[in-house]
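Lab notebook, bench 4. We co-purified these components, and the gel suggests they stay together. Before we commit to crystallization screens, I want a quick structural picture of the whole thing.
Request: model the full complex, all chains together.
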Amino acid sequence: MSKLWTLFLVIICSTSLYATEGIHLENTPFHFTKAQRVNKYTTRIPFKLVDRLIVIEGELKGKKGEFIFDTGSEKLLINKVHFSNLILHDDNISNTSGILDYIDNPIQKRIQNFSLKSLSLFNKESDLIDLSHIERAKKIKILGIIGYTILKDYEVFVDLHLNQITLTKTDTKGNTLGSNIYLEKIVDSISFRLKKHAIIIDGFINKKKAVFALDSGAEFSQINTRISKKALKSFYPKGRIILKGASDKELEVISGNLFRVQLSETVYFGPMKTILTSFLNINRAFGTKLDGILGHDFFAQKRAIINYKKQKIYFINYPILRK
Amino acid sequence: MKLKAIHIILFLLVFTGLDMYAQKDSIKGYRIDGDHIVFRFNKNDYLKATDDHTEERIDFEDLNIKEVFVAGSFNDWSRGKWKMKKISENIYELRKKLTDLKDFTPEFKFVINQKYWAEPTEDAPNITAAKSYDGVEYYTYNFKVLLAYPSKKGNYTFRLPGHKNADKVILSGSFNKWDEGAFKMNKTQYGWELTLQLKPNYYEYKFIVDGIWMEDPSNKNKAINEFGGYNSCIDIKKDVAFILNNFKDAKSVILVGSFNDWSETLCPMKKTIKGWIYTIKLSEGKHHYKYIIDGKWIIDPDNSVKEYDLDGNINSVKMVK
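Here is the predicted assembly.
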């Protein structure tokens, strides 16, 4: 009977993109409409959760919509559904490794002027892709996806208690610029390494070494079907689910709860909703061998500050709420 | 052109089947009571049960009910973990914290004697088609715990006057992902209405009158939608109690914050046995605040969540969800 509860999940597969479509965004006002500039170097951006996706309200070329916050995405991705009539600027074809999908040859762009209200970002590489399938599933208007190229110059505080992201500009060594940034107490930290754009964390599953990528765009964590038996013992399957792609690709995977995930002696996690799947393509995308991807539950369980230049993640406790 | 597919995956939860049933005015199988969910099994709500092993359908009246369990996505569909308490001859209940449901959109069923699955009838508004491993819909339904759901004791009533000749009016909005069938409105002598229990948030919605979408004529708050038309808007607020312990000798304590434009007169706190309290309706989101105790501004000593404001001052922060 456990079959009955099967949830219908979708792998979002964008259609192939060709060099005949493009986007020209030089000097385009591009901002997050609810961003709040705390000081010269720090901006707070409120977000909302759509199911388990972090989305930020924004505006691009006069169109209002949402941007998905995705630490697993390499670049700024623009939804061609809303910007298909823009002039091709750059015919460069790149292979993006966004967190979202099979993305085939999106067209690399450069956004000359990307502003987080008062913060201006220049020459950010971006890609144009079709995100209409996410829009259909989530019933929201998605303008694009915020990825590594936007985030790497900042210390990024992802706070699922206050539902906001705080971006603070850093110097070349990763030291935050300005003062009066947070009042929260950092209680722990871990190191990570960057592989291409991906945050790679060495940790443990059931005390067995495991390599994770951190991906805020993954609604559910994932583990490789090829992880060790000891690690696999920490995965409690609940059932099978069908991952269905927009192009009718279907994949049957096992879903369940992953227990005993630990990233250091002191940093450990409660059960995470997890999917057991083959990492063949995922490993190719990240250019490294992964045992797992830590998705939404990572942030749901830890208020985390990511410093890309120092390659550290700092943790802040959730408050104990008075009832 | 050589296409190099590079793989990264995002999984989306798709809710299906909500529009495939008729609806009565109240959900079945549970009620929300504060921070708790109370599962409620009423024998009279069921006509059929399915044998777990043989999948044979049997008449409910043939069952000799000894015990009832709740089985759902939150407890691995265990037939014997969440035992319900017998309240009366036909009623069983089980109270759980909402946080016990974890995430996903929970679905559940009742299990009789750890063997027979009570099959929901099709008139419950919160049923969803059960699916097999390969996504094919079974002929049975599960109950679904809805984040927004119709309830006579709900916190907001949507009303559409007139349209008495309409056959069907649906309420559709951001609270149910613009589902075009889930929330059927009830006919009244004035028109149509439906009361929902909604979490604090800003919502947009429309009515669908016999297939025609329309705004709420009695609601002036509107937002332009992607089709160039308008959606009606509501802001569901929540009662939030600000509690300051101690300071019993103080003569006056004022609550000031971003929600009252830092007014030093609008929210005088009331004295309690332990300290001071003020309850105010707040919108979903983040609110900065402080207390003024006999003229002196302080942050909340019991709240660890603080932030700098845009002028560099430190405020306490209350999050409403």
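Chain A touches chain B through 81 residues (CB under 8 Å). Worth comparing against the SEC data before the next meeting. Residues 114 and 121 of chain A are 5 Å apart (CA to CA).
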